[in-house]
Amino acid sequence: MQRFCARIVASLGFVAGLALAAPLWAAEGGGGGLPQLDARTYPSQIFWLLVSFGLLYWLLKTKAIPRIADILETRQDRINADLDRAARLRAEAEAALKQHDKILADAQADAQRRIREAQEKVAAELARHQAQLDAELAAKLHDAEARIAAAKRAALAEITNVAAEVVQAASRRLAGVEVGAEEARAAVLKVAGEGGR
Is 124 inside any structural domain? Predict the structure, then answer.
């Protein structure tokens, strides 16, 4: 604003300088020139110049400069408010970003924990099923061994019976002696017992 006033004062000074130099130009030109350059009208021109300058200065000082100052102050206040609002929004955005990062980290940690729990649960379930399967297989193996042993005993008993019958038939045919079933069985068991030693 001070620059504006300085320019106006400089312009008025230039005009005043031209007015003072006009008589020199008129003397050189031989008289009959422009009426505003006539030296006899200088006092009234200077008077109205000072009146115009004073009026213009008063209008600028009381009307234009305060308005411009108010506009500039309002503009500066608006700029400051916008800067404050931008700083507040930036702080809110940074806080929201931190909150987002925290929520994301918590969600990832929770997901990792759940995955780990699910893996442990699946591993425990697999171990339980494996133990149950091992127990079932052991029971079936024990049953199979018991059946095999029973079948072996039954087969041995049957072999003993067959061998006793063979002994009876052989002694009847070869020796002509009739041997009882119990005697033949005892003889077979005696021979089988000595052969097992």
Answer: no
Instruction: Calculate mean pLDDT across residues 27-52.
Output: 78
Global confidence as pTM: 0.39
Q: Which of 87, 104, 121 is the last residue of a domain?
A: 87
Q: Tens digits of per-residue pLDDT, 137-179?
A: 999 899 999 989 888 888 877 787 788 788 778 877 777 777 7
Look at residue 114 in the predicted model and tell me its pLDDT.
95
Q: How far apart are CA 148 and CA 137, in angstroms?
A: 16
C-beta of residue 54 within 8 angstroms of C-beta of residue 9: no
CA dihedral 147, 153, 158, 160 (to 10 degrees): 170
The owner of tokens 């079933």 is: 181
**Domain extent at residue 25:** 2-87
The b-or-e profile of 19-35 (16+ CB within 10 A means b, else e) is: beebeeebeeeeeeeee
Q: What angle do CA 111, 115, 120 make, to 5 degrees?
A: 150
- Assess whether 80 and 153 both reside in one domain: no
Q: In this structure, are residues 65 and 31 in contact, taking their beta carbons and an 8 Å threshold? A: no
Please count the structural domains in the chain.
Answer: 2
The whole-angstrom separation of Cα 117 and Cα 43 is 106
Q: Which one-letter DSSP state was computed for residue 63?
A: I
> Closest Cα to residue 170, out of 195, 151, 196, 191?
191
